[in-house]
Structure formats: C-alpha cells, structure tokens
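Re: beginner question about structure tokens

> Can someone show what the tokenized structure looks like for a real chain? I only ever see the sequence side.

Sure, here's an example I had lying around. Input first:
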Amino acid sequence: LEVALFRAEGVGRREEALMVSAVDDAGEALDPEVAETFFRLDAEVVGAPDTPCPEQALGAVREEQRKAHHQRLADRDLVFINEEEEKLSRRVDDLATLRDREIRDLTKQINELRKLSKAARSLEEKRTTMEAIRRAETDRSDRQRRFHEEALQAELERERLMQQVEVALEVTPVTERLFVFRWSLL
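And the corresponding structure tokens:
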C-alpha cells in the first residue's frame, strides 16, 4: 500500500491530493476506495515481509491515479476558463450594445441641434446652439474613447485568460511518495 501526494498548478490555484495505491502480491491493483479502508482497520507490526514489494505494479497504479487526478484538474480548468470567457464575451457585447445606443442617441441629438442652429434667428441663439453642439460632440467623443478603453481592458483580460491556459498546459504534475508499507490479513 502506498500513499503519495499529487501536486499541480491549476488555473489560478494549486491542487494537492493524496493518492492511495495498493496491489496484492501478484501485482493486481486494488480499487483505491478499498485501499483507503485499510487505514480504518486495526493493525500491528509483525515483522518484515517475506516477498519484495511489487514496485512496478505499484508504480503503474500510482501513474494511473496521477493521470486521473491531472485529467480532473484539466477538466475543472476548462470549465473555469469557459465560464470566464463567457462572462467576458457578455460584458463586451453589453458594452457594444450600450455604446451603440448612446452614440446613436447623441448623434440624433447633434443632428437636431444642427437643424436648430441653421434655423437660428439671432446670433445669441446661434451661439447657444453651437455651444450645445460642441458639448454634445465632446460628450460623444468622450463616450467613444471610454468605450474603446473598456474594450481594450476586456481584450487584456482575454489575453490573461489565454496566458493562464498556456501555463496550465505547460505544468507537469508532481507525485511525491509519502510512505509505502506491506500488509497482510491474518
């Protein structure tokens, strides 16, 4: 029976798990849940084992468990990245919708002010409408700039997500044997 520590870096977090591997003297693997039950049994040390530990079979079971843990971590990372990507896409879409509506409304307002300016009957009225046009155009430009900056920020977040995926793909999980012992049922 062997207990090993599985350690790997997931997306934004470290994953650690204990792996219990067990094989019988013939090298046949025992189910990990069955192997874990041996820790609940009363036991005593009765001497050294008669036969050598089937290291190769134990190593194969450990490697199988390592792969399974690594796959579960990769699956969770994929779910996390998909959720984050979806949130980011919705945010970008919402920003674009809001931007389009606000810009359209401001453009409509500017066009109406231009009509009023053309129809002005006095210099004072002309100056007032021209100032209103300038303020509305400045507001429209400021909003376009702000939306552009927010879109760039979203693009940077998408880039960070891609970097997290790349890091997760490059990480090799580490398995460290904590202890191994032989047991027999009496």
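Each token stands for a local structural state, so reading them left to right follows the chain. Residues 14 and 166 are 16 Å apart (CA to CA).
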